[in-house]
Amino acid sequence: MPAATPAPVSPGAASTTPLAPAAPPAAATPPPASPAGRLRWARFLPATVAEGPGRRAALWVQGCRIHCPGCFNPELWAARGGRVDDPAALAARLLAQAQDGGVEGLTLLGGEPFDQAAALAVVARAFREAGLTVMTFTGYRHPSLTAWADDGREDVAALLAATDLLVDGPYLRDHPDRRRPWLGSTNQGLRALTPAYAAEVARLEREGGADRVELRLTRDGGIEVNGWAEVAALEELLDGLDGARLARLRRPTGPHLTRTTEGAPR
Ligand code: SF4
């Protein structure tokens, strides 16, 4: 499927559903129409069990305009830095690594995936066409995204169409969600956009679930962390690793992916 061409942004094309008062205003306005031919990204893990259902690859994108107060990943806000690649070529490389890792799908986090919707749709479709699932985290709300898609935003429509499981809504640090895995605050939705995870979503909404955190030793002797943990628990875990460098690998969907304890790695 060819990359969608972003349509001009209509400043008035916001969701009709009001946001909670604490929500950042940018979450209610359409994302920028970014180019389909270049993707700015920050990190990639070929296999993790901490970033969604099952064993998954995870791709953190660089850049987020929403700026939720308390976001755990402010280093991923800037639309500079990271690496820039052609999304089709990048998808081929990442898919090969993910398949070597034996994953069931790809998780897109940030940063804000819908701020680069056209390029990420290219990546997401490549994984879907290989028989893998796609989970996407976003600080925008699903009703807003569908309204913008219906209003002509083909890039937004394309990424929604390539997503099986969506976590949506800005991170509200005063409303932590300690019951459902992967979500930072109770306002956020866990939405099965295809049947792939419908039963899992129903189970998690009914029973809740646990978060996970992963630590990896890097070749230079440092430690990378992803997933979620309370800061105190993580510091206790890391006690005794004197001299180790903690390179935080945060979930880019960031604060809306984190919970109450600011600074916890995602
Ligand atoms: S929580 Fe997500 S949407 Fe909110 S500022 Fe951080 S990266 Fe952006």
UniProtKB/TrEMBL annotation:
Residues 10-20 have a biased composition (Low complexity). InterPro entries: Aldolase_TIM, NrdG, Organic_radical-activating, rSAM, rSAM_sf. Residues 21-34 have a biased composition (Pro residues). One of its GO terms (molecular function) is 4 iron, 4 sulfur cluster binding. Residues 1-35 are annotated as: Disordered. Its cofactor is [4Fe-4S] cluster. It comes from the Bacteria. The keyword ATP-binding does not apply. Pfam families: Fer4_12. Keywords: 4Fe-4S, Iron, Iron-sulfur, Metal-binding, S-adenosyl-L-methionine. This is 4Fe-4S cluster-binding domain-containing protein.
